[in-house]
Amino acid sequence: MKEIIGGVTAAQGFKASCTAAEIKYKDRKDMAMIYSEVPCKAAGTYTTNIVKAAPVKWDKEMVDHSPFIQAIVVNAGIANACTGQEGYSYCKETAKEAAECLSIPEDSVLVASTGVIGMQLPMDRIRAGIKVMTPDLSPSIESGTNAATAIMTTDTVKKEVAVQIELGGKIVTIGGMCKGSGMIHPDMCTMLSFITTDVAISKELLVEALRVDIKDTYNMISVDGDTSTNDTVLLLSNGLAGNKEITEKNEDYDTFFNALHYVNETLAKKMAGDGEGCTALFEVKIIGAESKEQAVTLSKSVITSSLTKAAIFGHDANWGRILCAMGYSGAQFDPEKVDLYFESAAGKLKIIEDGVALPYSEEEATKILSEPEVTATADIKMGEAKATAWGCDLTFDYVKINADYRS
After folding, report:
1. Each residue's pLDDT tens digit, 266-302
2. Which parts are annotated binding residues?
3. In a 10 Å sphere around its CB, with 0-12 CB exposed, 13-18 middle and 19+ buried, how is residue 346 labelled?
4. What pLDDT score was predicted for residue 273?
5. Residue-range domains of the chain with CATH
6. 190 is catalytic
7. What is the average pLDDT value for the chain, to the nearest integer?
8. Which residues fall in the annotated binding site for substrate?
9. One of 47, 145, 190, 232 is an active-site residue; which one?
10. By three-state DSSP, how is residue 42 classified?
11. DSSP string, 127-178
């Protein structure tokens, strides 16, 4: 597997474009379009929040029942959530407009929105945006990058990645872009993630690969404990790589799955590391667990602990907060057998052994915790299972950003 420059336009046959439609923002691009030259098989996963935005409902219906998917229209600024039947009808109107402009079926168009909850979309601007984006569709790397920038809300950086693998002598590419900075919590987050690939694979295996992999990627990140109304991950495959179609779980499937995992994990970590107001990506590894479920529960409990997140912001090796968060997670373990390490580009330091503090240097610990990426590893010495979760520190700016979000 080789990482390459690019995102959603890296795979053969995919194009992207974007525009400034002034849906909410007046000083930036806020709409994007992804298009495949040929029909795609599609897979999707969506928010677990009972309150689901209209685009989530539309996409699930289309992915599950349409013969194929060929385009995605995305807007930033307004979420089209809690907008009733009118909001859902706007999804249909968006798809219809795109279908007419692209000369494809209406049910082959997916839609996605992110932004403020409760506001109706300005459909005149949405339609105008689609008309502008259609002739600008391009397979260039720049077009993919611009699309990744256009879907941002409180994100501070664009998020994209692409990789290539070889299947049966054919080069297969997987690329993706996402947005996500706040209202992010395990079991899907305020995130939109769009993955494109030219691999030839059955829809059944495409769906299964995505369903299985989100458990170890998108569902293992948290910024603030809020699960959004709009979370959506969409995976499109157009088969243009020309590899022998993957119809069973064989070596080709494993190679594709591992590459998909790399793309998803990379995008997930980019979101966690760009949490609203944050200064550091906080990674938590639980090793030596009795079961994967136990390790997942413990790691998620630590990354969602406000006290632990605040300690990371303060570069404070307050290991008691980590052990405390593990203790109330609901998972059973012996705290008197836990070893804990802090690690970053500045070094690695063992903080506690068998649940008791070691005589470590506070100065060295602070130096390690002052890096932009920090890892805490807890060995609970019960077995061979492990899990990794990603979050970020909790800063003053998180409150400022969310206090002023609608204004």
Report:
1. 999 998 877 777 889 999 999 999 999 999 999 999 9
2. 153, 179, 190, 276, 402, 407
3. middle
4. 78
5. 2-272 (3.60.70.12), 281-403 (3.10.20.340)
6. yes
7. 93
8. 153, 179, 190, 276, 402, 407
9. 190
10. strand
11. HHHHHHHGGG-B-SHHHHHHHHHHT-SS-SS-EEEEEEEEETTEEEEEEEEE
